[in-house]
Amino acid sequence: MAEICSPLRLPLIAGRKKPAAVTEDVCRALTRPPSGLWWAAFAAAFALLLLGTAAVSYQIATGVGTWGLNTTVGWAFDITNFVFWVGIGHAGTLISAILFLFRQRWRTSVNRSAEAMTLFAVMCAGIFPVIHTGRPWLAYWLFPYPNFRGSLWINFRSPLAWDCFAISTYFLISATFWYVGLIPDLATVRDRLASTEGGSLRHRLFSIFSLGWNGSYRVWRHYEVLYLLLAGLATPLVISVHTIVSWDFATAVIPGWHATIFPPYFVAGAIFSGIAMVLTLMLVARKAMGLEDYITTRHVDVMCKLLLLTSGIVALAYGTEFFTAFYSGNPYEEFVFLNRAKGPFAWAYWTMVSCNVLVPQLLWFRRVRRSMGVVFVLSLLINVGMWFERFVIIVTSLHRDFLPSSWASYRPTIVEVSTLAGSFGLFFTCFLIFCRILPVIAMGEVKAVLSHGQGNGGEA
Amino acid sequence: MTKTIYGMMAEFDTPGALVNAAREARAKGYRKLDAYSPFPIEELSEALHLHKSRLPLIVLIGGILGGLTGYLMQYYVTVLYFPINVAGRPLHSWPAYIIITFEMTILFAALSAVFGLLALCGLPMPYHPVFNVPRFALASRNRFFLCIEATDPLFDRKATSDFLGTLEPREVSEVAH
């Protein structure tokens, strides 16, 4: 184990852990009864989920008229939530695939839960376009298949059809990436359960899903190649997904949407909001589950630096939009941007700028990056800011377009607000259940980096 | 006589010891070797002289098939099966096809990677003799195992066991079939 040992290399995992201790620390949460904090969080999340279910059921039974949409503002909360949740998912893929390709070994502590977050976020995202169709029981019409509706096919030249392909591919690939990464850990849990509760239902389920994994080299060598290939495939995929989401807007002629800057702007924003959500979840998980040795202040610190970087890109995009509007000489374009900053939705615009551009500047300070409470609050604010970014893009561009005669306003109804709350409920319910039934830290990967910076490579 | 057991297995405490043992077993002439560990160890592939994985080729073929499927599906539908003349614009509008072609390439490549892995490794594997060794349950946690299989021409129950004993293992055990 030719690990270079230097005082410059700090350990990735604190507490000089041995592999056996990693197994115990991570698996303990699976067999221990849930804490009071977990039950409280679960009850809150599940209540929100029920509220959302009620709202969506009412909307499906009654119609899209239960929302505050009108003929001018045809997209509002639904598409805002869709873009928001897809964006959240992208940080999971960034951490699991892009940072893997860049050999960022600190990612091992957070990649499992970040990937789970991706999966649940994409599930939340998928709900919104489907219920927005108005007749969700016909949502399968989005897929191309030979049919008897006058042999009519989907329009392959439409960004909405591209979106359908992109999001379903993204969900499938994220799910397989996550599952493949889980297999060695499922085997670890299986072997651990065999000694304590061999033959139980849980043991049998872990046996089935670990596929008879035995850690043989005949398997590991293919497995490592597979992981690299999946990371290489997921990286362009994640960029394509948010690029295509941005084309839902950019291919339209609406001022404020019709811009070539949209794809990179959306991808950076997605990663920005996603990392904020990863931080929110990690900071809670490390406290609630006692994982401070695995998710150290150093992990939080590097993720804060990523936030700072992506915040800078987003700020640059905001500035560029205004400059382009001014420099284009296009009066509609100019109007839309002035209307954003000074019109009826100025409060939303300035919330967005404060949360996404001003607040993250605090992260320049090392003391802020290392103070968990402050980072937690910042991550929540950034989540709020990024939700408003999508709201501003969608609603302010639509509500006052070319003809003043068609101008209108928009106000969400209680059904829409409940649906948004319900999507958070679904997300957190899924995440809390995941924390209880599966190892939240990729044990196999963490064991491989234990010796990093500890100079005990040979003695593992 | 060697058919009755699967092989001899030695247990080690550290990845370094496992790599050394694998090297020495190769040097001694054993070829039917396998190592088991809770995490991948880079040096082992080289110590065990494993062939390069064929997975990239499978993924390349899967990706090409996916791309062709995506493109031809759109071509077939928009040009042959249900052509719609929109103000005389070309039916074969290939730039618009690229996105779905790309997504299908990634989808097929990734799925062929996963199913390729399962096929190449013979997973799911309901039974494997190594699990007959009681201490092998630690192979997914914190122990490292080297197994010399009975199908190796040099395999001999006594000699192989003695050889493994010289590598300073924690324990040497027989793997029943």
Key words describing this protein structure:
heterodimer, A: Formate dehydrogenase/DMSO reductase fold, B: alpha+beta, Alpha-Beta Plaits, four-stranded antiparallel beta sheet, 4 strands
Compact description:
Chain A is 69% helix and 0% strand. Chain A is mainly alpha-helical and 460 residues long.
Describe this structure as you would to a colleague.
The complex is a heterodimer of chains A (460) and B (177). Chain A is mostly helical and 460 residues long. Chain A has a single domain (2-146, 156-454), classed as Formate dehydrogenase/DMSO reductase domain (Formate dehydrogenase/DMSO reductase fold). Helix content of chain A is 69%, strand content 0%. Chain A has 15 helices and no strands. The radius of gyration of chain A is 23 Å and the shape is globular. The N and C termini of chain A lie close together (10 Å). Chain B starts with a strand and ends with a strand. Chain B is rod-shaped and about 85 Å long. Chain B has five helices and four strands; from the N terminus they run E-H-E-H-H-H-E-H-E. Chain B has two domains: 5-52 and 127-176, 2-Layer Sandwich (Alpha-Beta Plaits); 55-120, no CATH class. Chain B has 177 residues and is an alpha+beta fold. In chain B, helix 3 (55-81) runs antiparallel to helix 4. In chain B, strands 2-3-1-4 form a four-stranded antiparallel sheet, covered by helices on one side. At the A-B interface, helix 1, helix 5, helix 7 and helix 15 of A face helix 1, strand 2, helix 2, helix 3 and helix 4 of B.
